[in-house]
Write a structure and sequence with these properties.
about 180 residues, alpha/beta, Double Stranded RNA Binding Domain, SHC Adaptor Protein, 2 domains, four-stranded mixed beta sheet, about 30% helix, about 30% strand
Amino acid sequence: MKFTIVGRKVNLRDNFKELAKKKLSRFNRIFDEDADANVTVTLERNRQTVEITIKQRGMYYRAEATDFEMNDALDQAISKLGRQIRKNKTRLEKEIHSAALDQYIQEYVYTTEQEEEPEYEVVRSKKFFVKPLNVEEAILQMNMLDHQFYMFRNEATGEINVVYKRRDGNYGLLEPEED
């Protein structure tokens, strides 16, 4: 796994970088060598946010945690990532090494009770005309509908895009990318 560790508004010490690599290395059995692990640490108002994103073959695995201490936030993010992988074990077996995933589950996850895996159920399907819009028009339409996201055809590129409202009140744009 390739590591990228970045600090925003904070200077990261080498011992934190080594600790992050060591803790993430327990996922080495699950992911290929070509997987990219990005760790981003952000300092805002004396709170440290650690965001971990692992990308492998078009699949993204992401966890984020905020705490007063950088190391505590790292531990929480690693735990969240492990829980996500364990929770979606059967669905992920098709995407990542199933034998390594089983070994990880047995070694690092200590649960006394088996959690039932929730089924993903589509309860409603909706078809609608996707109108060509620019990004600003799509945001306006989303706000007028009081939705959290809005899918539209970008008039500049002709591709299907999604605008969404972020937790911080700003907006995001999702665009397709060819690998």
